[in-house]
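Re: [ENG-882] Designed sequences occasionally contain unexpected residues at chain ends

Forwarding the minimal case from QA. Structure tokens:
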């Protein structure tokens, strides 16, 4: 995961609106809570008060990122599958063999 632009994260939290995609390239985002749970943008946007509540570690968003490659992730709230942008390299190796 790349370093988070904390100023931009604070702006999203203050507005209560969490981006679905990065501006350049349109890559999908996911959010990470204080207790390392994963949230999809829809769950973050449906629960903005919880996502900025620093006392609630299962909801308080502390980071966001693009899931560049690897196995799929799953939103810990709604179970939505978050696909990686470039697939799973291990899965591709198995197909070649």
């Amino acid at each position: 995961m790349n370093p988070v632009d904390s100023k931009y994260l604070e702006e999203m939290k203050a507005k209560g609106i969490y981006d679905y995609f990065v501006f350049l390239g349109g890559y999908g985002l996911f959010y990470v809570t204080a207790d390392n749970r994963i949230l999809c943008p829809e769950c973050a946007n449906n629960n903005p008060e919880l996502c900025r509540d620093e006392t609630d570690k299962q909801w308080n968003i502390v980071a966001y990122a693009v899931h560049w490659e690897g196995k799929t992730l799953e939103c810990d709230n709604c179970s939505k599958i978050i696909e990686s942008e470039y697939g799973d390299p291990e899965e591709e190796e198995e197909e070649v063999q």
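QA comment: On inspection the terminal residues look reasonable. Helices lie at 6-15, 41-46, 48-51, 89-96. Proposing we downgrade this to a documentation issue.
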